Amino acid sequence: MAEPNTTDELADECVLFSSYLVGKKPNQYIIEKYKKAHEGLNLLPENRFDKVLIGLANRNSFLTRLSDTYCQIFFKKSLLRKKLTLLLGILESSASTYQNFEKANGSALPILFIRLFWILFLFILTAIVSILLLLPLQLFTKTIPGFQKKRF
C-alpha cells in the first residue's frame, strides 16, 4: 500500500491508527483534524523504508503495532511515529477521547505490578517479532543504491 494521499485514505488511516492508540474508532471531528493537519505539514516518507512502514501499518492494527514497536526501538524519527504522535495529540485534546488519557487506575499495588509485567512481556514479544520481520526489510532497503537519497 502506498503512502495515503487522498482524503479517503487518510480517513481510513486515522480510523486504524485511532483504534490502535485508544481502542476505538474516531468521530468525524478527529478524522477532519487529522486530514487538515496533513494539509499543513510535510508528512512525506524520507526514504523507502519509511514508505514500507506506512504501507504495513495501514494494513491492520497488528501490523501497526509491529511497525510502531520497531520504530520505538530503531527508527524513532520515522514518518509512522510522526503520524501516530500527531494523532495522539488530536485524540488527547478531543472531547470524545481525552478521558482515555486522564483516567487513573486505582488498582492495588500487586495488580499494578502484574499489569506492568504483562505489558512489558507483550512489548518484548512484539519487539522480537518486529525485529525478525522488519530488520531484514530495513537492511534490504539500505543496500539498494539510491533508496536513501530519493524522496518518495
Report on the structure:
- The chain is mainly α and 152 residues long.
- The chain has one domain (7-143).
- Helices cover 70% and strands 0% of the residues.
- Helix 1 crosses helix 2 (28-40), helix 2 (28-40) packs across helix 5 and helix 4 crosses helix 7 (109-143).
- The mean pLDDT is 86.
Topology, please?
Elements (H helix, E strand, L loop, with lengths): L6 H16 L5 H13 L7 H10 L3 H14 L4 H14 L6 H4 L6 H35 L9
Structure summarized in a few sentences:
With 152 residues, the chain is mainly alpha-helical. Helices cover 70% and strands 0% of the residues.
Give a quick set of tags describing it:
70% helix, 152 residues, mainly alpha
Q: Could you tell me the radius of gyration in angstroms?
A: 17 Å
> What number of structural domains do the residues give?
1
**What's the quaternary structure here?**
single chain
Question: Which class of secondary structure composition applies to the elements?
Answer: mainly alpha
Proportion of beta-strand residues: under 5%
- Quote the distance from N terminus to C terminus: 13 Å
Listing every helix as H and every strand as E from the N terminus to the C terminus, the arrangement reads: HHHHHHH
The major pleated sheet works out as: none
Shape from CA axes?
flat
Number of distinct beta strands: 0
Sequence stretches where pLDDT stays below 50 over 5 or more residues: none
Average pLDDT works out at 86
Helix content, binned percent: 55-70%
Count the DSSP helices. 7
